[in-house]
C-alpha cells in the first residue's frame, strides 16, 4: 500500500513545489508551465538566430526578471523559466542548463561560461521516497560580477558571493564567499581576490 505523503495537506503539487516542499511532479499545472517554457525557449532560439528583433521580448516572457543588456546565447534549457532572475549586463554562453524548480538568481555583470549547469532540484536519499517520485528544490543565488567557467555545476541551495570566480569544470556543493577563486570537485577556495 502506497504511503500518502500529503495527508491533511490540501495544496496541489504545484503549490507544494512553489513553497519549496516535497511534491510529486504529476500536477497538470507543472506540465503546462514546463511546456510553455519549452515553447518559449525554442521561439527564443529561432528569434536569436534570425535576428528579427523579438528575442528580448520572448526572453522577458520566459524568465521572471531580466535586467538590461543581458546576452543569453542559445541553446539553453530550463524547467519553468519563470523562476530565473538575471541581472543587468550579464553574459551567458551557450548550453546553459538552469533547472529552476526553485529560484535561480544571477546578479549583475556576471560571466557564465558554456555548458554551465544550475541545478535546484533535490531528491530524497531514502530509496522508497525516490521510488515514490518525491522531489523538492533549493534556490541558487549568484552574486554580482561572478564568473563561472565552462562546465561549472552549481548544486541546490548554493550561494556564490559577489566578485567570485569559479574555475572551469568545478562542482559547487557549498556556499562560496565573495571575492575568492574556487576550483575543483567539490569546489574549494584557493585564494582571495583583491
Q: Which key terms come to mind for this protein?
A:
194 residues, alpha/beta, five-stranded parallel β-sheet, 22% helix, 28% strand
Ordered list of secondary-structure elements with their pairings:
Layout: H1 13-19, E1 23-24, H2 28-50, H3 55-62, E2 65-66, E3 71-72, E4 76-78, E5 84-86, E6 91-92, E7 96-99, E8 104-106, E9 111-112, E10 117-119, E11 121-122, H4 127-131, E12 134-137, E13 140-142, E14 147-148, E15 153-154, E16 159-160, E17 165-166, E18 171-172, E19 180-183, E20 188-192
Parallel strand pairs: 2-5, 3-6, 4-7, 5-8, 6-9, 7-10, 8-13, 9-14, 10-15, 13-16, 14-17, 15-18, 17-19
Antiparallel strand pairs: 1-12, 11-12, 19-20
- Distance, first to last CA: 59 Å
By DSSP (H or I, 4+ residues per run), the number of helices equals: 4
Question: What is the CATH C-level name?
Answer: Mainly Beta
- Just name the CATH architecture: 3 Solenoid
Biggest sheet details: 7 strands, mixed
Order of helices and strands: HEHHEEEEEEEEEEHEEEEEEEEE
What name does the CATH topology carry?
UDP N-Acetylglucosamine Acyltransferase, domain 1
- Annotated CATH homologous superfamily: Hexapeptide repeat proteins
User: What's the average pLDDT?
Assistant: 96
Query: How large is the radius of gyration?
Result: 18 Å
Explain what you see.
This protein is of the alpha/beta class and 194 residues long. It has one domain: UDP N-Acetylglucosamine Acyltransferase, domain 1. 22% of the residues lie in helices and 28% in strands. The chain is built from 4 helices and 20 strands. It has a 7-stranded mixed sheet, with no helix packed on it. Helix 2 (28-50) runs antiparallel to helix 3. The radius of gyration is 18 Å and the shape is globular. The model has no long low-confidence stretch (mean pLDDT 96).
